[in-house]
Amino acid sequence: MPLYEHTFIARQDLSNTQAESLIEHFSTVLADNDGKVVESEYWGVKTMAYKINKNRKGHYAYIRSDAPAAAVQEMERLMRLHDDVMRVLTIKVDEHEEGPSVQMQKRDERDSRRERR
């Protein structure tokens, strides 16, 4: 099956648990349509470069999946209909990278720099 990477932004007024439950919800949509979630990450609340729907910040989430195209289309359709999701980006990749994403690596590097002080 094809490999995909999905990134979406949820509204800033959600709690962290609600944003993480969105990841679980869309993961089950993929699983129900014969797909498989390889890895998912919650990146936290980040400031956006420009306002989207009058929001300056948003909850960022990332999902790596191994799913058929029909499952991805269904998940994207449900994301577009969901009121809490502001933006969606899906990319088809040849292979998934090992380890955490670049966003999570930056956070780890910041934590190690604080320890040295």
UniProtKB/TrEMBL annotation:
GO terms for molecular function: small ribosomal subunit rRNA binding; structural constituent of ribosome. GO terms for biological process: translation. The keyword Ribonucleoprotein applies. Keywords: Ribonucleoprotein, Ribosomal protein, RNA-binding, rRNA-binding. InterPro entries: Ribosomal_bS6, Ribosomal_bS6_sf, Ribosomal_S6_plastid/chlpt, Transl_elong_EF1B/ribsomal_bS6. It comes from the Bacteria. The keyword Ribosomal protein applies. Belongs to the bacterial ribosomal protein bS6 family. HAMAP family: Ribosomal_bS6. Binds together with bS18 to 16S ribosomal RNA. This is Small ribosomal subunit protein bS6.
